[in-house]
């Protein structure tokens, strides 16, 4: 019916929390315990470290003259609640690019160093990547990309060689992205000079050194040790070269970095590394944001990449504050607040946080279906004495113990499966396969944590195992197994979409990408199409309970089409209208055109397909 080439699977998993610093503790940081840098041990734990004396007060550097690339329609203002932030001076529609700039510095994650360019962050071009012949660690598209990155790389090349030479094993021969990014920051700051705009913008970023949580202090000490080791400093005096007078100063820089860094993502939201933009970092947080930060790879010139853009996902009036989310907003309030306090040192008081438990509406992040199946939901019980009721028919939940147990087992399993996802994907997949029915059976909704997290992880693991789909020359059995795998991935993706659409605002890029993944899965050639449809797992949006899901044959392709149409609409918002929805949005447009040809709807156009779509049914 349709060729494999036209509808091959090209899906990357997405993990994005759009503004979480990629600060995994360095795998080799514990070497400081070997006593290699014993001079620093006392220094980093000295009283100076815990000093509350403010050295570089925020605002010491007048914003006048700095950040002059922020458009005139925006303004930096200050509030008692959250310090500086960015406010609008005009109204903006959804999908408008509010701010666009290249990060001041960035570093690829170790996983992507040999598959992505360290300058433009693009994937390997058809001509292949070229490696730096000196450190043999970073790779570039070509000489142009290498030249553009040279102002940074020349400062780190020797440090990378030194680290590799001293590494006890190949697995730890490259410091992680946070250490390399911090190294770039310190070297460039020194090179640019304290009076330069570059250094002043970096120094103007907020630090929480004087009021850190104890867990954060420990983490920062670890990072400080690694940086010292990476830069090859043998005594505290060497730090003076980097304009750092004391341990407190070093922690100040680290705090600025951790409070203000961003995860740099691919156009499909796969985290690729870490980056710093002092201008975008001025934007404050809300768990229900009106804007998002994305990297759509839509600039006309590679030299502009990785271009970072702030896009409005809600209409924004004049004199409104632009707010993005620093965390994964699919998480329940308790986890969001804990993360914000530990990493960003504040307690969020956004409407979503303030209204939890107060409003009549059940938060879909912590919801279960009505025990009488009236279609309503009730909040999840937290303790075994909690009496919770359906918000519609007021039926009391009696399976309290079972629900609490399932949620606890699910959280432990999610943590374990997440830790295993790269080391042992098969085991991780098995865990998610076992746990999801345990959470579905007492009635957790698809948007409820940790079911949503498990579904997203399962979907990604299933997709990763799909490229081995057998060709049509394979045996009937192999094709049947491949069909089952594909159908499992579709059901998992469908559950994720259903969960994400309940908790994220329409147009949120994570929703758009999830819909695009579901649409692409539905559009993949079926290895062994079903002749007869059996009742099965119902698609929550498009099918009645009794209808089989996923469908087979032309109805499946039609569903792929409507799903991709929805994806395109949402991607146009989340990745910006002027970017044509980013790389994924453009890909979805092309897929839609190809399917339109197959469905023979050229003449009738889009409208016919939408009219055919069954209406969603209440559970
Ligand atoms: C990336 S900075 C944002 C810009 C910062 N307000 C400034 O003046 O530089 C993050 C810090 O801003 C503050 N912040 C951001 N959002 C906040 C909020 N919703 N409530 C309270 N403080 C907030 C916290 O101190 C947080 O660590």
UniProtKB/TrEMBL annotation:
Its domain of life? Eukaryota
Q: Name one GO cellular component term.
A: nucleus
What's an example of a GO molecular-function annotation for this chain?
zinc ion binding
Matches recorded under SMART domains:
SET
Instruction: Give the SET domain ranges.
Output: 72-327
Q: InterPro entries recorded for this chain?
A: H3K4_H4K5_MeTrfase (IPR050869), SET_dom (IPR001214), SET_dom_sf (IPR046341), Znf_MYND (IPR002893)
Family annotation (SUPFAM superfamilies): SET domain (SSF82199)
Q: Which residues form a coiled coil?
A: none
Keywords, sorted A to Z: Metal-binding, Zinc, Zinc-finger
Q: What is the lineage of its organism?
A: Eukaryota, Fungi, Dikarya, Basidiomycota, Agaricomycotina
- By its UniProt entry, which Pfam families does this protein fall under? SET, zf-MYND
Q: What is this protein called?
A: SET domain-containing protein
